[in-house]
Write the structure tokens for this entry.
Amino acid sequence: MQEAMINKAKQLLADGTVNRVIGWKKGEFVYDITPAIFETAEELDADFVYNEFTAANVSKYLVKESKKEGKILAFLKPCDTYSLNQLTKEHRVNRDNIYVVGIPGGPKLDAEKIKAKGITGITGIKNENYTLKIETVYGEQTMPFYEAISDKCASCKSKKHVTYDELIGEDGDVLESNRFDMVEKLENMTAQERYDFWRAELSKCIRCNACRNVCPACTCEKCVFDNPESGVENKAASNSFEENMFHIIRAFHVAGRCTDCGECSRVCPQNIPLHLLNRKFIKDINSLYGEYQAGEDTTTKAPLNAYTTDDCEASIVHERGVE
Amino acid sequence: MLRIAIDKIDSLFDAIAEKQTLYIPVDREDGAAEYKKYESGMKMSNSLNTLRSAKDFFFPQTENLVEFKMEGKQIEVKDIREESEDFVIFGVRACDARSFSILDKVYLVDPVDSFYKNRRDHGVVVSMACTRPAETCFCSAFGIDPTAPEGDVSCWNDGSYIYFEANTEKGKAFVDSISSLLEDGDASSLENVKAETKRILSLLPLSNLSTDSFGGDKLNEYFNSEKWAELSESCIGCGTCTFVCPTCQCYDIKDFNTGNGIKRFRCWDSCMYSDFTKMAHGNPRISQLERFRQRFMHKLVYFPANNNGEFGCVGCGRCLSKCPISMNIVKVMKALEVK
């Protein structure tokens, strides 16, 4: 796949369709891959990589990149195309300046899951029949491929590219995913259990803002939490309640716009399952307003932006809140 | 050398915790390790390092500095400083142990930071030599020997015993206070343990990383380097690297309006943030490139310029593991390096 992508990129650079390419650049190890822009065939040959660790969603970079001179080639996985569509719908990107080549997605692996097994000193990782053979300075280790799959891929919602100019490989389908299982588990908890769950998780927050900054739905020029004039600007929590509010407010702000790309949880240095907040909103929107997938297209009005006489009454919140 | 059998370590922790607050690294459910206040029954983590660094003990993410109370035209200024309790941090790795001496160079020079000094005076650092360094480790590049960690007391683990050696007066007093639980024993097995760790260190992918091309006199070589544009291109401007870093030391001071007064507090700041060092006239670093450059220039050029050549990084590798886009000081050093 990597070779086909490099060849495609070279071809599109050579024929003038695009003047640069956004993809992934190899790192010091097998897993520390950085999103990067490539401008020449030489750069592509030297550093372009696409493998089990290229999990990063590059859609958000297109907000800035698509405003520059000339077209950019973006290699997008199925989940990334939902983000781009949503950004197009919100007029945050100039879609005309982007040439999308759809590529097959995951499952991608999460190096942290490998390290959590106590495997360290990693110098190489190979997938042999769904067993990971991990070369380390302490000798070879093995673990099942499936135990290293990143959370966002473990509950993949779709293998379908919802926007592209061309595809490498065949397109897939929207999947029956298990992505609401944990949300249901939380819904079935008592209010106190649920409160304790979230307090334990959110109290780990170090307010690094990685979740917000990586989120393709968070594209405000100036976030209220960074704006000294807003009255809620804060770099650190003066109490633990504030961390809860930061994440809950953020989840509200992206409600109906979050495509469930999973980047927030992928990047959280404290492994907080932030995506569960967003999934709760998605699940509620589905049940209260009818099935809706943000980013599926660029034209449909989002349920929270549209009024119909069938909309549920506001009292539903009160009714559901009663235990 | 004084030592205790590993299966008796719990009784040692119990004894220490009886006299003062003890923090040890413990494993969380998600596999990451973090420092926790010791309570009987807790098991010490075997992890190489904690997710957050040990700097939190001396330089917490947020702390109150002073309070102002307003009544009519009267403003009362309340000094809220209190003497810190005595505490022990057990199991600090060599990288974090060195980070304290870097923070000392910032906070214990004139004007001395009384909040930091208060905790420093009351904390005993018990370090633990590394036996399983990771691929992300590069402390050797900064002259740190992970088989001989600094700290008030250094410890080594040979799989059967933990050995203790006091390095400071505070460390001696601590070892004396637990001496009834320790025995004098042969420490010759440690030579093999150290030799094996050093062998592993030489196999690590970053073992050849060199700081030779960096230092206080390299301002002009690197400040205007064309490489910064490419290096900072995909930085998302979050604060992860700065907040997991044991040596990042910048803070912001903020006022919280309580309604009838002000609580003035400080909290960690990040040079990656858009309002970093924002002043009345505006922000001196308006682009992410400038802010990104600040972090690495600080560690590799400005800090050594002001501190007799000492770098502001200890090679713990946390930023290598945690950066959302896997950009880090090693990649920056390798890209910038002018031999």
